[in-house]
């Protein structure tokens, strides 16, 4: 579904992605992991059009997204839940959800209302808080709102950057339970996640980035079986080491 080919991007003269290539397939949860500074967030920001690619190609199904502005990328079906959520703090929950569907508020108001109801069903705490200012909610509730807002765009691929960041373990478990429900309901997901164990709990496809390059691309079984991966990401060591 989402194909990234020889993608290069960065910030000014500093190149953060050095020609990465991978695919996030339809109906799967693809998890992008790696150490700090590996280029994970830059990858999602480049796919979303926030950071401009200097070369390479991004395709969603049969559409080339590489040079499109962010609003057009969203309308093509690629939606991002950014790191630290970035919800509209002073807006109500309902207004945040409406903003997620801003491209069709005038043309499909009935559809927007149906989707809002669907989001409140997915995320029951938001129903109780629907008239509350988003900035007054807990971190976990704000993360739920950020995911729901991105889903209001009816994406073909939902991208999430560190959804567990700064949340208590019980809240993280709840967030990942919701992500698994979304996947079971047919949502394709590209996930950046620092917590490898949580990533393995939901992913069908693992990509490892290091220093702006793809160093592993495979399924969770192959990931767990890799000796290098075990030492670097799963905290395991050979008996003789």
Account of the protein in words:
The chain is an alpha/beta fold and 241 residues long. It has two domains: 1-77 and 157-241, P-loop containing nucleotide triphosphate hydrolases (Rossmann fold); 86-154, no CATH class. Helices cover 38% and strands 26% of the residues. The chain has ten helices and ten strands. It has helices at residues 40-47, 70-76, 93-100, 109-122, 124-128, 139-151, 169-184, 196-202, 220-225, 227-233; strands spanning 2-11, 14-24, 29-33, 53-60, 63-64, 78-81, 157-161, 188-192, 205-210, 213-218. The strands form two sheets. The chain has a six-stranded mixed β-sheet with strand order 6-7-8-3-9-10, with helices on both faces. A four-stranded antiparallel β-sheet has the order 2-1-4-5, with helices on one face. A hairpin with a 2-residue loop joins strand 9 (205-210) and strand 10. Helix 3 (93-100) runs parallel beside helix 6. The longest helix has 16 residues, at 169-184. The radius of gyration is 18 Å and the shape is globular. The model has no long low-confidence stretch (mean pLDDT 89).
**CATH H-level superfamily title of the largest domain:** P-loop containing nucleotide triphosphate hydrolases
Please give the largest β-sheet.
6 strands, mixed
- N- and C-termini, Cα separation: 42 Å
Proportion in helices: 25-40%
The strand order across the widest sheet is: 6-7-8-3-9-10
Task: Give the strand tally.
Answer: 10
- General shape: globular
Beta content? 25-35%
